[in-house]
Amino acid sequence: MQVLQCNPKQLDKIGSRDNLFKDLDIQLNIDQQIDLGFSLSFAILKINKYSKIFNDFGRKAADYVLSILIERLTEVLKEDATLYHLKQVEFGIIFKHQSMGEINQFMKLLAQPIPYGHDFIDIQLSLGLVDLTTQIKKHSEVLRRADIALKLAKSEALNWQYFNHHLDYYSHTDRDMFIELEKAMNNKILHLAAQPIFNINTGEVIMVEILLRWQHDEYGAVNPMTIIELASKNGYLSKVALYVAKQLVIFLHEHGDLYQNISFALNFNMPQIINITLIEALLKSFDEFGIDKSRLIFEATEIDSSPVSLDHVVNHFQWIKQQGIKIAIDDFGSGYSTLNYINNLDVDIIKIDRSLVCDIETSTRKLETLIALLQLCDKLGVIIVIEGVENISQHNLIKDIGIADVLVQGYFYAKPSSLKEQTFCNSTYFKKSDSYHLN
Q1: What is the pLDDT of residues 248-261, one digit of tens each?
Q2: How many whole angstroms separate alpha carbon 93 and alpha carbon 108?
Q3: Which CATH number does the domain 8-171 belong to among 3.40.50.1220, 3.30.70.270, 3.40.640.10, 2.40.30.60?
Q4: Full-model pTM
Q5: Angle in degrees, 0-180, between the axes of helices 17-29 and 139-153, rounded to the nearest 10
C-alpha cells in the first residue's frame, strides 16, 4: 500500500484517531433528545482503488486527488461537521444532516471526476454511516458498526450504507455465512431473477440477463456481491456458476419454446470465465439438455481485474466463441484498461456502464462522452447495450442519438423479476410485443 501524502497544512486541520475517540465519547455521553430536528451521524469515508490512481497517474497525481478530496470535504461539510484522519485513505466524520437526500448529494459532489492536466481522474468512494442518537455506549461499537456499513457500501448503487440492526447479521464470520450458502445451494434456495433488454426503437425484448438472488431467513436479502466474495474465498466460484447455469438450463428445457427469439446472458467474473474446466462443464450441461448455444451470452465482468495475461484472455474468448456462445463485456467505460481490451478482444456485445448514463440529461459533457462511445462501438460493429436507463429524459436522449438497433436496460423499462414466474418480459414503458432473435 502506498504511503499517504498530501499538504501537511491540510492534515493539521483534521483531527486524529485519538481526537475522534475523545469526541465520540463526549457525544455518546450526552443525553440525546428524541427529536433534534436533524440526525447526528458518524461515518467512515474510504477512497477505493487509491493505489490504482497512484500506479496509473503517479504519486503527484495521487497526492493531488487526496488534497482535492480534503478541500471538497471541508467545503461541503463546513461548520456542521468534524473531520478526522483515521488511516491511509480512510477518514472519519461526525456531522449533522436532515435527510438521506443530503447524503446522496454529499456523495455526488465528492465523487465528481478531478481535472488533472489534460485528464480527468475518476474517484471512487464508499461511506458507512452510524446514527449517534441511538443507544451506543462505547466508541469501539460506533467504529464496528460503521465498518460493517462501509463494507456493504461498495455494492450499493449510491456507494453508501446506513447501519441498522439488520446489517449486523453481516458481522457473522464468513465461515458462518458460507455454511449457510452451501445449505442454500444444496436445498436450491438460491433462485434466479431476470431483467429484459429491449430494442430502443421497437420495444422488443432481445435478451434477458440472469441474476442470482438469495433470500435468507436471518440475513434477509443477501447482496449478490457478498455471495461471490464468499464463493471466491472458499473455492466455490465454479460451483456457484454451475448452479446458476443449471437452473437456467432446466428453465430453458421446460419453457424454451416460449422464448425462442430471446437470448439469455450469464454473468461470469474473470476467474470464472477463464476456467476451462468450468466452461467445459457448462457446455456439457447445455448439450445434455439440447440447449441451442447460440442463444447464450457469457458476460465478462470485472475485466480490469483479470488474473491472466491479455493474450490468454484473447485466446480463451476465441475458443468460447467457437463453441457458438456470444461474448459480452460488461460495465464498459467504468475501468481504466477497458479500451485496451476492446482493441484486442473479438467480442459480440458491449454493455455501456450505468455511470456513463447517469446525469446525461443535465450534463452536456457526459452526454457527449456517451455519444462518442456509442459511435465507437457502432464503428466496431458490435451490439450495444446501454445499462442503467432510469427515466424518460435519458431514454429520449439515447434514442435521438440515432444509432440503429441500440439495446437498453434499466429500471425505467423493467426491474428484475423471478425467472420461474415468467414475468420478466413485461415492461412498464414498452407495450408487449413479439421479440426477435439476436443475430
Answers
A1: 999 999 998 899 89
A2: 17
A3: 3.30.70.270
A4: 0.62
A5: 110
Q: State the average pLDDT over residues 18-41.
A: 72
Look up residue 31 and give its three cell numbers: 443525553
Cα–Cα distance between 325 and 394 in angstroms, integer?
A: 31
Q: How many CB atoms lie within 10 A of CB 375?
A: 12
Least confident of 139-143, 147-151, 152-156, 219-223: 152-156
What gap in Å lies between CA 70 and CA 91, rounded to an integer?
Answer: 10
CATH number of 174-418: 3.20.20.450
Integer-rounded Cα radius of gyration of the chain: 23
Q: Where are the domains of the chain?
A: 8-171, 174-418
The predicted model gives 257-268 an average pLDDT of 93
